[in-house]
Amino acid sequence: MKYLVATIIVLVLAAAAAGIFSYRMSCEPMLHAAAAKGDAMAWLRADFHLTDGQFAAIRQLHQSYAGTCEEHCRLIQEAVRARDALKASTAADPSAAAAADHKLQELRLTCETAIARHVRQVAALMSPADGKRYLALVLPKIADFDHTVAPDLRLNHPH
Amino acid sequence: MMKCNSMNSSRDPLAEILRRWRVTPPAEPDFRSSVWRRIGRESRATWSVYLRPHAAAWALATVVTVSAAAYTGHLTARAQVRADREALVVNYLVDLDPRVQAVFKSPAP
Predict the structure, then answer these.
(1) What is the ipTM of this complex?
(2) Cα angle A31, A32, A35; round to 5
(3) Residue B91: inside a domain
């Protein structure tokens, strides 16, 4: 009986060790650390095997894009405010509201095109395989993002 | 009654023989110590002695259990990697996407 219990204990310990070892071998600690810190640039560097030169060039590209992003952000906010004001007014002109909606959609499309162009430039700085993987991860999200921005995100973001 | 008994004893010599029969086994001087030796052998049986008759069953149980645990560990790690990557892509795009930033920066209703 004691040997039966001992054998079961050894088996459980061996299974636990195999599970932990397999977990350790399959997980990506740098990715996990970047996610825990919310550090997207660290993720970019680790996940896409960027050299120091590539990383610096991408960082530079992001910084230069930040101005475009700010301007788009301001234009979208203004368009949203204008459309909401039109819709809220009692004597709302349906054609003016539709035009405001249309303008907002155009701005969003312009923005989406600009981001897609930007990420393609970033991908071009990576190795071909990593660039392809980066685009496969990022481009579908850009297309979906406009529809998936949850209002509660507003509370969590430092902007 | 007496008559009946005397009749039995006169008719059945087997009963008389059995009554007189005495077994006198030869004394075995080593009997006690050999019993204790056998008890000692059983109590000192090693783990390998226990496992040997069940070797196939335990080997199968080990392979199945360890493989299942390793596979579960692998799946858990991959799920973790996917979740981390998903969170990082969203985090990355939030910083790039003016449409999202417009939502963040606009005053709360």
Answers:
(1) 0.71
(2) 85
(3) yes
